[in-house]
Amino acid sequence: MSNVIMETVSKLTEVVPQSEDYMGEDGLLYCGKCRTPKQQYFPEWVRIPGMDRHPVDCDCERVLRLKREAAELRRKHQSVVEEHRRRCFSNKRMESWNFENDNGNTPQMDYARRYVQNWDKVQSDNIGYYLWGDPDCGKSYLAACIANGLIEKEVSVRMTNFTAILNDLSERFEGRNDYIEYLCRYPLLIIDDLGTERGTEYALEHVYNVIDSRYRSGKPLILTANISPDVLNNPPDMAHARIYSRILEMCVPIHVTGVQNRKAAAQRKMDTLKSMMNEMVSND
Ligand SMILES: [Zn+2]
Predict the structure, then answer these.
(1) CA nearest neighbour of 208 among 174, 244, 181, 167
(2) How far is the CA of 12 from the centre of ligand 1 (A)?
(3) How far is CA 17 from CA 33, 55, 56, in A?
(4) Which of 138, 169, 245, 249 is the most buried (most CB within 10 A)?
(5) Structural domain boundaries of the chain?
(6) pLDDT tens digits, residue range 243-256?
(7) What spacing in Å lies between the alpha carbon of 265 and ligand 1's midpoint?
(8) Over the stretch 205-214, which tens digit does the pLDDT of each residue have?
(9) Is 93 exposed, middle or buried (0-12, 13-18, 19+ CB in 10 A)?
(10) Which of 133, 107, 171, 146 is nearest to 255 (CA)?
């Protein structure tokens, strides 16, 4: 072996002993802290005189290495999650709409949890939700919980609404198909507030295009709306009929009956004020 190679190998197999380290009866260097070896012999057939051993992690070094590797994995996961979150929501507020922050006012939240837990199954069976209910009943929150729950699993999700989609489409004379294809690339697409966009013929045509393209992509779609399934089953005209028929084919209707968030927030403020008043009276 050439001297250069010998020197390189020798450096790789060197262990710098710490002051508390010691030589064991087997002739190997041991860690003074955890009393496990810092070296291991090569198998007999590859041993060369003067180069018969290589470094190994003692127990305490192994624990440190595993901790470092776990921290690195967490850091990578966190950066993937943050990137997915940034791409998912146009409304930054929704980034914190997750199960941990849920106030418990929406009885149907279990549907969201089960959707996230069974993602592989709902994805392969192409199961979507049609979350419907009164304005501010928690359906957007529930949908955002699904988005955030899946993002934690590093699934790429896009949550938007038809008003934003129609704005984006009207800005593009060319590339409209590319834009719709881009929406359809996401493993899960959530479109919030169906029916609040302009109801023009032009708008309905694009709504149909988006929903139909999603249908043909074979990937799940979640919609929120305040239109009841009765209306979906009895559409007012042909333009709505073809949109609704796709929705009924792709999405399972779920009636969301949460306590209205605005009402709940107003009630909380009133309760706080009452307790402040009571404190003031008792302090007098
Ligand atoms: Zn050690």
Answers:
(1) 244
(2) 19
(3) 12, 11, 13
(4) 138
(5) 1-88, 89-263
(6) 999 999 999 999 99
(7) 55
(8) 999 999 999 9
(9) exposed
(10) 133
- DSSP-derived letter for residue 186 is S
Distance 17 CA to ligand 1 centre (A): 11
Q: Is the pLDDT of residue 135 over 90?
A: no
Tokens for 257, please give them. 């009956």
The three-point CA angle 249-253-258 to 5° equals 160
pTM for this structure?
0.80
CB 92 within 8 A of CB 190: no
**Which of 52-56, 89-93, 121-125, 275-279 comes out lowest in average pLDDT?**
275-279
Q: How many helices (H) and strands (E) does the chain have?
A: 11, 9
Q: How far is the CA of 27 from the centre of ligand 1 (A)?
A: 17
Residues 46, 147: Cα–Cα separation, whole Å: 55
Give me the pLDDT at residue 63, please: 97
For residues 48 and 262, what is the distance between their CA atoms, to the nearest angstrom? 78
- The confidence band for 259, taking pLDDT boundaries of 50, 70 and 90, is confident
Distance 43 CA to ligand 1 centre (A): 23
For 89-263, CATH gives 3.40.50.300
Measured CA to CA, the distance from residue 9 to residue 42 in angstroms comes to 13
CB atoms within 10 A of CB 270: 10
| Residue 7 reports pLDDT greater than 70 | no
Distance 128 CA to ligand 1 centre (A): 53
**Residues with C-beta atoms within 5 A of ion ligand 1:** 31, 33-34, 58, 60
How far does the centroid of ligand 1 lie from the alpha carbon of residue 32, in Å? Answer: 7
Q: Using alpha carbons only, how large is the chain's radius of gyration in Å?
A: 30
**Distance from the CA of 23 to the center of ligand 1, in angstroms?**
13
